[in-house]
Amino acid sequence: MAQFVHEPAREIPVRASVDVLVVGGGPAGLMAAQAASGKGLDVMLIENRGSLGGNMTQGLPLLGFLGRKGNEVIKGLPLQFVERLRARGQATHHRACPLHVSLTMIDPEGTKRLAWEIMEECGVKVLMYVMFVDVIKEGNAVKGVIIESKKGREAILAKVVVDCTGDGDVAFRAGAPMAYGNEKGIAQPPTLMFSMRGVDSRKLRDAVADHPEIYDIDFIPNEFFRADDNCTMVGFRNQIRQAREAGFHIPVERTIFMTGMAPDEWWVNMSRVNGIDATDPEQYTRGEEVCIRQNEEIARYLKAYIPGFENAYVDRVAPFMGIRETRRIIGEYVLTEQDIFDCARFDDAIGVAAYPVDLHHPVGGDCTLMWCPDCYDIPYRCLVPQQVDGLLCAGRCISATHLALASVRVMGPAMCIGEAAGKAASIAAETGLPPRAIDVARLRDELRAEGAFLR
Ligand SMILES: Cc1cc2nc3c(=O)[nH]c(=O)nc-3n(C[C@H](O)[C@H](O)[C@H](O)COP(=O)(O)OP(=O)(O)OC[C@H]3O[C@@H](n4cnc5c(N)ncnc54)[C@H](O)[C@@H]3O)c2cc1C
């Protein structure tokens, strides 16, 4: 088999020319597109899947909205999004949690619908089912992107591009310096979420609260679960040990599930495939298949070993295997775990985060949490790639160490960073300045005016 083929140069039709182009419609991308709109700029959002929301559609709770002192650290557009969902009965209050600091359950279908409504209200042009595949560059500056779809290859020109792909696809293609995973180049493992209905939630809560000697829960006092409220349960290590002795293959050391929006609904976060590079389709494919098999076994385990699950059944499976980590930029500043533990403050802060360093070990099936004493600032420089102009990054691909990313990657901060990136892109498009040169004081003022929380 030949190693390479030659692709001849060709003319590519230009589909659109816009002021701000957001690539990726997950939590970061939605907020970026909304924040960039409203100044009369042409804003476009492109997404390769058939729905908006990215990982917000996976049955996961939004983490990170509260700080450790119980105050809201994520406000602005992300909070408005949650409040609109809540008004429809599609999001819960932020429940303080000793382990995860806070949880906000959301309805995946309601999230997709609201995302559409907001994009329409803001006049953002949305183009789905298109894959970003390359950049158009002049010198060091990104001037647009190449997309692929059933229509073939097309170009979209833009004054500023915001990379919200999670994997840093745009920054990578633009040649920005990037990092991947830990110091050995291994990333946190992916998971395919699924939900079970028919769970006797009262029985589960009572069993856990009444019998801490049987049901070991990590860190949280078992009494916490007596209240009929939203929660994540993490633990049941004993039950996993027993199940393994009985021949079950469970890929993780801890049982992890969380409430959904219905009283008998719990979402299970337990499949794990170590060593997967999700930027390689062959490995992603293998991971998805392994997760499907793991989930069958996990559902059998839950029914057999966890009180309240006896009559439960698998209801929904997340639309895709969720990716915790791949590439990230090495930006103008690299956020470190020490910044998080020191509650660092930065003059160019564009948001505040408080979620712990939550590391699903790249090797083995365990997880470590390390808490920030209060909250920390996210500097604007973490959104700005080195060496490339015309581009900002938001969400899971910002500039942070492997450990710092394990905190800042969750959806509350991702939304907040998205808002800041969108606002910064709008300023860059208005002024004609490269994103690295915009007036950050103005950016912070505009974010504050939109209700963002900055210290
Ligand atoms: C299993 C798992 C459990 C997690 N648990 C939680 C949790 O409980 N709570 C929490 O807050 N966070 C959790 N996280 C983390 C969180 O979901 C992500 O880090 C966060 O969603 C990142 O947001 P994002 O917008 O950067 O990326 P994403 O949510 O991944 O969105 C990226 C979007 O870009 C699109 N896209 C990607 N590449 C391209 C391309 N080339 N062209 C066009 N479109 C593209 C994707 O389709 C997607 O819609 C979890 C993550 C995983 C994987």
Question: Which descriptors apply to this entry?
Answer:
FAD/NAD(P)-binding domain, alpha+beta, 5-stranded antiparallel sheet, binds flavin-adenine dinucleotide, 7-stranded mixed sheet, 28% helix, 11 helices, 455 residues, globular, 21 strands
Structural notes for this entry:
This protein is α+β, with helices and mostly antiparallel strands and 455 residues long. It has 2 domains: 298 residues, FAD/NAD(P)-binding domain (3-Layer(bba) Sandwich); 124 residues, no CATH class. The chain is 28% helix and 22% strand. It is built from 11 helices and 21 strands. The strands form 6 sheets. Strands 1, 2, 6, 7, 8, 9 and 21 form a 7-stranded mixed beta sheet that branches. A 5-stranded antiparallel beta sheet has the order 12-13-14-11-15. Helix 1 runs parallel beside helix 10 and helix 10 crosses helix 11. The mean pLDDT is 97. The site of flavin-adenine dinucleotide has 38 residues, from helix 1, strand 3, strand 7 and helix 10. Flavin-adenine dinucleotide binds next to helix 1, strand 3, strand 7 and helix 10.
